[in-house]
Amino acid sequence: MKRIIVLSGLAVALFLSLVALEAFENWPDFTIEELLFDLFEIALLASAVVATAYFSFEMQGMRHEHATLLGDFARARAEGDRWRETARAHIDGLHNAIWEQFERWRLTPSEADIALLMLKGLSHKEIARLRNSSEATVRQQATAIYSKSGLASRAELSAFFFEDLFIAKRGDSQMS
To answer: What does pTM read for this prediction?
Structure first.
């Protein structure tokens, strides 16, 4: 903000100097109306300079914030990639076990896809949009999934596959 004030003062001083030079140069023919008009012109020019400087500083701050966010995103992505690489064998095993269970339940390929998207946490509306189908179709297939699996809800579906993954270490929690 201090830079804006300094730039504003500098712009006003420079433009007032120009008006003073013009007034002294044309002193006998210079009228009060011309002086007021020139002062108005100066105010507009000074405002334009100040606004340009202000937006320039704001853009500089936004560029810095953008670069910081991109760096944070890159670090988070790299960390996620490292985690997935470390856990790859476990992830592949879980993936295969889930699909084998879908086959035991005799889910159709479409139902299995929907069940997987539900396990990922997508809503019926998001699944419908992703699959270019209606939300009613997704709800019908979800009902078929529950019926074939003997489960009553999305929560039970998630718990069926993931409940044992989230058991706290002994001593860390009273839940077991």
So the answer is: 0.52
